Amino acid sequence: MHSNNFDLSTYFRRINYTGPVTASAETLRAIMRHQLFAVPFENLDVQAGRIVSLVPEEITDKLMQRDRGGYCYEVNGLFAMALEALGIPYRFVAARPMFYPVRRPKTHMAVVAEVDGRQWLCDLGFGSYGIRAPVALDDLDSDISQDFDTFRLSRDAKGEYLLQAKVEGEWCNQYGFDLTPQEWIDFAPANYLNSTHPDAIFVQKLVIVQHLPAGRVILLGNMLKTVTANGVEKRQLTDDEMSSLLKNREWSGLMSAVFSE
């Protein structure tokens, strides 16, 4: 994933990273977590009636120069730019969201990186219950603790992986994927669907997820949910609170500006 305006030192400043710069599992984990905590998941462009751009230079400008966030193609695309700059091999994989009541197409995009002799699932764009650090693909059928979350990865006889998360004490399917490499352009149809289709959740509702070391804050429509090790708190926001929140730059920089651009 190459962008003519991507600069690794600028990226590190954007994600507040000052650690080692090596092609290692340690660096992979560190930059994934730093980006996760610095760059929010958000669909403000879709809510403003825009189709999300997959032009690499426009993603770099949006997430790095304008301090915005994005959804899976954008945040994972930015992460892939960093991996390329670090010399860490990776591939894009297409994933099928599995938490819907009906079978859905493979509209999610994740990254599988190869470092220190192992393959690692990396994903900064799965919203509410996404992984918070790389998951080794050979760490199968065991509880994987990440901060206050627990995940599990399994693989069937056909080579299809399934990622699950423990949500309120129950294992919940998140998405399935295999290791068939995908080109960046392969996600254009899924991006168009997620940006325009009336059944797409990103078209139906505002979605913002800010991950933090101690938890995550989720805004789904006007429902504000805070998730920490102590549990989940929910409350409905009033119209005035929503207006105030969207003008608050703590979420992702100029969040309200997208509606007036």
From TrEMBL:
It comes from the Bacteria. The keyword Cell membrane does not apply. Pfam families: Acetyltransf_2 (PF00797). Keywords: Transferase. The keyword Transferase applies. Signal peptide: none annotated. GO terms for molecular function: acetyltransferase activity. Belongs to the arylamine N-acetyltransferase family. This is Acetyltransferase. It comes from Pantoea coffeiphila. The lineage of its organism: Bacteria, Pseudomonadati, Pseudomonadota, Gammaproteobacteria, Enterobacterales.
